[in-house]
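Page 47, continued from p. 46.
Same chain as before, 279 aa.
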Amino acid sequence: MEYSEEQKESRKATEYEKVEFYDIKKWENEPPNIVNQTLGIVSAPVAWLAQKLVPQKAIEGCLNLANAAGSMLADTSDILKDGNVAKISDLKNVKLEVCDGIANNVHNWALAFAAAEGGAAGWFGLPGMAVDIPTLITFSLRSIHKIGLCYGYESISGEDERFILNVLSTAGANNPTEKAASIMAMRNIQQMILKTTWKKMAENAAKDKLSKEGAVMAIKALAKQLGINITKRKALQAIPFIGAGIGATMNAQYINDICWAARRSFQKRWLDENCVEIV
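Result:
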């Protein structure tokens, strides 16, 4: 395998890394959120109304803007301070438990913010969802970008952006097939990044027009998937006043799924790029 940086020698995993590796495998094999699926059956009529209020086209537009916004909103100063490093990429060379500790702080902050935002939007019932869902998508992407930083990964190429969108797709999968497909796509993108030199990345960026049609199709598919997933989770939030508690709970649950998907995905990438052998 070729690397864009200097070739790294493989090394045996520490005990901590072994535990995390098997937890990654466990997460990959877990089905999507069963509570979400059950709730979707109960609240299907309200979910239909919610999808009419926030249609797929609106989610497509949000996704096209939100990935860039998420990257810009994911500041690095606290990550650099907590990791005691000069630049984000240095976190690829610290211990995995250091990266995990920083990511855990980001995760906990994200849960608190999502619950507060969901509670405020839920108070207004169905109209509040028109604001809540785009905000939730933007914040989800911001959280994925931010957790990526914890492991030394900044979004600097089209491949990085596609990796992040597939993390979002994995967390928002509606069935095991969707989840498995998103994980496979992430692995393929990761291999592509590993095998691409910085010079080649620049060349690819200059002639990226050929891949734009594929990117548009991917956004359409992701928007449809998320439209189903999020509205099923949040359908009961459509009831004014009592929707506040539901909105807070469901937002926190969704962001928890997002953060774990990001943590497991970037952990796997970190272990692979550090040539860690699990024996």
